[in-house]
Design goal:
By secondary structure, this protein is of the alpha/beta class. The protein has a single domain (about 30-190), classed as Vaccinia Virus protein VP39 (Rossmann fold, 3-Layer(aba) Sandwich), CATH 3.40.50.150. It is built from 7 helices and 7 strands; from the N terminus they run H-H-E-H-E-H-E-H-E-H-E-H-E-E. A 7-stranded mixed β-sheet has the order 3-2-1-4-5-7-6, sandwiched between helices. The chain is globular and about 45 Å long. The model is unreliable at about 5-10 and about 180-190 (pLDDT under 50).
Amino acid sequence: MLIGVFAQQSPTLDERVQKFLSSHRDEWHDLNVPYADGKVLFDLIVEHKYTTALEIGTSTGHSTIWLAWAMSKTGGKVTTLEVDEKRHVQALKNIEEAGLSDFVEAHLRNAHDYVKEAKGPFDFVFSDADKNWYKQYFIDLAPKLKAGGCYTAHNVTDGNVDKDYVRYVESRNDFTSTIESHQPCRNYDQL
């Protein structure tokens, strides 16, 4: 009797991430970006070939997965910050399940302190934490952003963000500012 045993091919990283995002698509609530916004973040990084990203506000990792997946395409890495231990632990599990741990440096840390100490430079920043601190994050990180880099902040038009932040970044002549709306979500991209 002859028995044939065939090794199954391991899924590619893209297949693994797509499967993870697809199977969890309806689970991202509360402090996570919607699926459409994750896709925008991914596209920005890949299109501009960014390799050094900083994320302020990991939550449970949905946006981090999009950022890290993009970094897998550009050869980069995302540093992400979360202050809540329970969300941080869940994010680490989600990132690992998606197969993206090699592209993420996750810190359980207060971003207020980290952004002041961070050496940079970064070519991509995504801010999605305490909205009343957006202006200060920008002030602390703008000098650490590479020329041609992109600073993005989430939900700037939803009423929870200090309006001084938007006025401040729009007043900076060394940045080009745009507010982009993607239904049903909103994104603010500083290019």
